[in-house]
């Protein structure tokens, strides 16, 4: 089983919103084969708590435009690691230090990476 088309569309919209707010290292993994609870993990990071918050807000605003509202939002008090749960897509916006410490890419390295279709940085 692979991620649904709706999950992929949601992931790419979220990635574009994060990228527009200068999120760093935006990556997504199709975790549908390993997990029954979601299809995709989207991970990105920022250098400070204010930027983490801005990225989270931008993702939520963009996904509301396509009719998606998170079922759950966690970690927004500290803005060190905010999780947005859209059921089929889970977005992790991390402070750079948490990104290095928890290294989610290492945990999900065996999962296929999703092409986010983001423009190349110039």
TrEMBL record:
InterPro entries per UniProt: Iojap/RsfS/C7orf30, NT_sf
Keywords: Cytoplasm, Repressor, Translation regulation
GO molecular function: ribosomal large subunit binding
GO biological process terms on file: cytosolic ribosome assembly; negative regulation of ribosome biogenesis; negative regulation of translation
Compartments, as annotated in UniProt: Cytoplasm
SUPFAM superfamilies, alphabetized: Nucleotidyltransferase
GO cellular component: cytoplasm
Main subcellular location: cytoplasm
Subunit-structure text: Interacts with ribosomal protein uL14 (rplN).
Role this protein plays: Functions as a ribosomal silencing factor. Interacts with ribosomal protein uL14 (rplN), blocking formation of intersubunit bridge B8. Prevents association of the 30S and 50S ribosomal subunits and the formation of functional ribosomes, thus repressing translation.
Family: Belongs to the Iojap/RsfS family.
Protein name per its UniProtKB record: Ribosomal silencing factor RsfS
């Amino acid at each position: 089983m692979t991620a649904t088309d709706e999950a992929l569309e949601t992931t790419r919209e979220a990635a574009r919103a994060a990228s527009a707010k200068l999120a760093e290292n935006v990556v997504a993994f199709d975790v549908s084969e390993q997990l029954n609870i979601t299809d995709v993990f989207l991970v990105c990071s920022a250098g400070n708590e204010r930027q983490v918050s801005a990225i989270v807000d931008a993702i939520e605003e963009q996904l509301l435009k396509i009719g998606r509202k998170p079922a759950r939002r966690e970690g927004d008090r500290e803005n060190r690691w905010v999780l947005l749960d859209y059921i089929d897509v889970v977005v992790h916006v991390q402070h750079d230090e948490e990104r290095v410490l928890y290294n989610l890419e290492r945990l999900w390295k065996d999962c296929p990476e999703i092409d986010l279709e983001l423009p190349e940085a110039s």
